[in-house]
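User: I'll paste a sequence; please echo it back and then give the predicted structure.

Assistant: Echoing your sequence first, then the prediction.
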Amino acid sequence: MSGEQSFILFDGYCNLCNGVVDFLLKHARKNQFGFIPLQSEPARELIQKYKLPENPDSVILIAGERVFIESDAALEIVRSMQFPWKIILIFIVIPRPLRNKFYRFIASNRYRWWGRRRDCRVL
């Protein structure tokens, strides 16, 4: 990723997603990421601009004009982190279909396992 700010679209009601946002705010370079809840108008505009599926069930990373979803987004976010977090990149050796299947399994159970907020932290 270049030095420009990237945007992470995340589920604003998901406790897991908000926990990841908190982690990134603490561990990523200052102002490296902008965070946009999927439930917001700016997210809807970006989803439309990049012709992404309506109501995505995934984190989305927009870095310049490049768009990453599912496990690719997660790994690209990790790529920008410092050691020791970069160690997670080892999972890039797993074929994308298998990585994404695992990613979707976690995504589909995230509310059950981590809970759901009543209100989005940004909206």
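The mean pLDDT is 89. Residues 96-114 form the longest helix (19 residues).
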